[in-house]
Design a protein that fits this description.
Largest sheet: 4 strands, antiparallel
Shape: globular
Helix content: 10-25%
Order of helices and strands: EEEEHEEEE
Distance between the termini: 27 Å
Number of strands: 8
Structural class: mainly beta
Radius of gyration: 15 Å
Number of domains: 1
Length: 140
């Protein structure tokens, strides 16, 4: 059986929207999509949830998925795209209290053929407001 991605797009807000879903076979994923994207295959921020990261504990994986998804829904979020010498860097954060809390960061080699959003300069910050009021995790 091949893995099929199931996604549920959320409300589009400001410059980014969030899609969340999971692959059959255990991998869940949260990804952000630019509302002004150039094409459907534009490379942008994502957060994979792989079972190996949680020492093969499906329960821990599900709990972390729900916790991070809730934070992205109820807080202001931002994604920072940075151009380095060798890599493109993407970092997603949410604003809780007076501080920005990191959700997940990843990088992509600049010499690859990824379709990346064009940025002027070295850094671009994308913002999204809160999407929902305080949620109960069991409702996710």
């Amino acid at each position: 059986m091949t893995a099929q991605q199931l996604t549920c797009p959320l409300l589009l807000v400001r410059s980014i929207s969030l899609d969340f879903g999971f692959l059959r076979g255990g991998e869940r994923q949260i990804s952000a999509v630019l509302t002004q994207k150039q094409t459907d295959d534009t490379y942008f921020w994502y957060r994979p949830f792989e079972l190996a990261e949680f020492r093969s504990s499906e329960g821990d994986l599900v709990n972390e998925f729900c916790k991070e998804l809730e934070a992205l829904l109820i807080y202001e979020t931002r994604i920072v795209q940075r151009k380095g010498w060798l890599f493109w860097h993407f970092r997603c954060e949410y604003h809780a209290g007076n501080a920005w809390e990191n959700v997940y960061s990843h990088s992509a080699l600049r010499t690859s053929n990824w379709n990346l959003p064009h940025i002027e300069g070295r850094i671009r910050v994308y913002h999204s407001g809160l999407i929902a009021d305080k949620l109960d995790q069991k409702n996710l």
